[in-house]
Amino acid sequence: MTISDSLARFSASVLETVQTRLELFSVETEARLQAYIRYLLCSLIAILFASVGLMLLLLLVIAYYWDTHRLLAIGCMAGAFLGLALCLFAWVKNSLAMQPKLFALSSAELARDVEQLRAAADRQG
């Protein structure tokens, strides 16, 4: 076996590894993108429905207390909405912080490939 044969095999092996890793990267990207699009669409629809329902509820409460405590009713409803908005903001912030690192599988596979290449180079050198 000549050096050129070894080099050709090594090059083919490296190219196959790179191709596999790129395919894994593509699959991870596509899966994450689809999940985010689904989350976004569902969130927007939920926001629309919740907004309509809350506006109708707000009008009902204000109409009920119009003659006696209209300012108190408006203030309480505004405070409740602001409190809910802050809670949801905190939840979204925490949820995004807990997301797994993007391309974690690809990074792990590439790190393993680098270690294998280093070990192979050490054996031959």
UniProtKB/TrEMBL annotation:
Cross-referenced Pfam families: Phage_holin_3_6
Keywords, in A-Z order: Membrane, Transmembrane, Transmembrane helix
- Transmembrane stretches, by residue range? 39-66, 72-92
Name the InterPro entries for this protein.
Phage_holin_3_6 (IPR009937)
Question: Could you identify this protein by its name?
Answer: Phage holin family protein
* Record organism: Undibacterium nitidum
Q: What is the lineage of its organism?
A: Bacteria, Pseudomonadati, Pseudomonadota, Betaproteobacteria, Burkholderiales
